[in-house]
Amino acid sequence: ALIDGPSSGVRRCVCNFKDMQLTKFKINIRVGQRTKNIGKAYDDAEINKKWGETELAKRLARKKLV
């Protein structure tokens, strides 16, 4: 998979699906989109807000506090 993390600072790269944990969040983008446009779509979809509300995100945040 080609991944790009506009808000987390992850640069565009290739990653194996077995090394990822997929979520239900999806952004519809066209082929060949630049990081800037992906970041805008990411922000418009409020992915960070939706992710923060998931149980997995809350569990990971608790682990970091300990």
Strands, helices and their partners?
Blueprint: E1 2-5, E2 10-14, H1 35-44, H2 47-52, H3 55-65
Antiparallel strand pairs: 1-2
Q: Give the N-terminus to C-terminus distance in angstroms.
A: 33 Å
User: How many helices in DSSP terms?
Assistant: 3
Helix-strand category: alpha+beta
Binned strand content: 5-15%
Helix content: 40-55%
What sequence of helices (H) and strands (E) makes up the elements? EEHHH
Strand order, biggest sheet? 1-2
What is the domain total for the residues? 1
**Main sheet makeup:** 2 strands, antiparallel
Task: Work out the radius of gyration.
Answer: 13 Å
- Point out poorly predicted stretches: none
Which whole number gives the mean pLDDT? Answer: 90
The total of beta strands comes to 2
3D shape: globular
Explain what you see.
There is one protein chain. With 66 residues, this protein is of the alpha+beta class. The chain has one domain (2-65). Helix content is 41%, strand content 14%. It has helices at 35-44, 47-52, 55-65, and strands at 2-5, 10-14. Strands 1-2 form a two-stranded antiparallel sheet. A hairpin with a 4-residue loop joins strand 1 (2-5) and strand 2 (10-14). The longest helix has 11 residues, at 55-65. The chain starts with a strand and ends with a helix. The model has no long low-confidence stretch (mean pLDDT 90).
